[in-house]
Predict the structure.
Amino acid sequence: MIAERIASIRATLPAHVQLIAVSKTKPVSDLQQAYDAGQRAFGENKVQELVDKAAVLPKDIEWHLIGHLQTNKVKYIAPFVHLIHAVDSLKLLLEINKQAAKNNRVIDVLLQFHIAQEETKFGLSLEEAQEICIDSEVQACKNVRIVGVMGMASFVDDEQQIRREFHSLKNIFEDLKNSHFTGETSFKEISMGMSGDYALAIEEGSTMVRVGSSIFDGR
Ligand SMILES: *Cc1c(COP(=O)(O)O)cnc(C)c1O
């Protein structure tokens, strides 16, 4: 079932859009089924769960941390994490740089933006992101690379609202690209879209969709 659902989602994705299978709370056996169906990118939102699963699953999996990350937990994923989606402070960015250096790695990250109307979501404003990008300590970082942006739309039925929110993230991406990442071809990712809204997100410019329940629960 998981294999069929992955295949049918993949069939709808344009070639430039990567599917991240969001496997939080799912048992390792579910992830193994997805892996056997060819899926290699998995997203988790808790550090401990990600580390535990990585320890027992094949080593060629790309692990994406998609949830909020506390600075004191960066060290646990720094040796192997593929992409950190939710960087929302200068302090966190500097800690990722420090832990990546200890592991002789460059860790790719996305800046998370607050695009939803709901109050509870984490994320930066464009102004805050610009301050981070011009910070001299950040510019001196050699072990962390900002490769794009991430955001979550509001949990509402109003398609126009969701579309507007995704559109605002695309605008933020273009703005940052033109102001701080001109000529940097690695700055190219827009992580937006989940089970309920990934088709809209793709229409609005997503390059990475984070899909959980449509794969693992068939919803
Ligand atoms: C859980 C989660 C997803 C996946 O949500 P589904 O609706 O299950 O597809 C995507 N992104 C983040 C940040 C999540 O926490």
